[in-house]
Specification:
mainly alpha, 1 helix, disordered C terminus
């Protein structure tokens, strides 16, 4: 009886050990899945914050340029030398100088050829989760491989160039108007017939 009892106890201890190992594996898998889900959720929040702050800076750059050019004829755009310049009183264009939400650091600044800051972008080379359905002002972000390719700038490729009334479209000669099909060629004038009409011979009269 003692031998049978000892064997049963060993079997129970072995079964308990196996169940404990299975439970540890299950808990490990569950924690791994939860960690991935948490990481994805945090990344999505960072992406949304990046879009919100980037678009706000982009809009601030547009307002800054429009204000500086108001009432003056100036070629090109006018840009600030620093982001802090956008926050100056009495008329700030930006609430505060934000940090990059994804890289957790300062932005990578895009400098204009004429000087000043024309845009910002994250320094992160990570792949975004969001690939489509962007806001209209940054719809050119679709399919970009990294956050570094999300450039918030003014002017930006997502907004069409406006042609003011009375201005000459680029590439057309003076006196020409663009055809409805967009070819840019002038509408031809109707042909002028320079050949005079035939003259009928005079009717002959006979004496009665």
């Amino acid at each position: 009886m003692r031998i049978h009892s000892t064997s049963a106890k060993q079997s129970e201890r072995g079964f308990s050990y196996v169940m404990l190992m299975v439970a540890i594996v299950v808990i490990g898998v569950a924690m791994s899945v939860a960690a991935r889900q948490w990481k994805t959720m945090v990344q999505r929040e960072q992406e949304a914050d990046l879009l919100a702050k980037g678009i706000e800076i982009q809009n601030a750059l547009a307002l800054y340029s429009a204000t500086k050019k108001a009432g003056r004829v100036m070629p090109g755009e006018v840009y600030p030398q620093t982001l802090a310049e956008l926050t100056k009183q009495p008329k700030p264009f930006l609430r505060k100088v934000y940090l990059d939400p994804v890289g957790r650091a300062e932005w990578d600044l895009l400098r204009a050829p004429t000087g000043g800051i024309m845009g910002v972008r994250s320094k992160s080379r990570s792949k975004p989760i969001k690939q489509r359905a962007f806001p209209l002002v940054v719809r050119h972000f679709e399919g970009k491989p990294t956050y570094y390719d999300w450039v918030f700038q003014f002017p930006n490729p997502s907004m069409p160039t406006l042609v003011l009334p009375g201005t000459q479209p680029q590439g057309s000669a003076p006196g020409q108007s663009a055809a409805p099909g967009g070819s840019g060629q002038a509408n031809p004038l109707p042909p002028t017939n320079l050949t005079p009409p035939p003259v009928s011979p005079p009717l002959s009269t006979t004496a009665s």
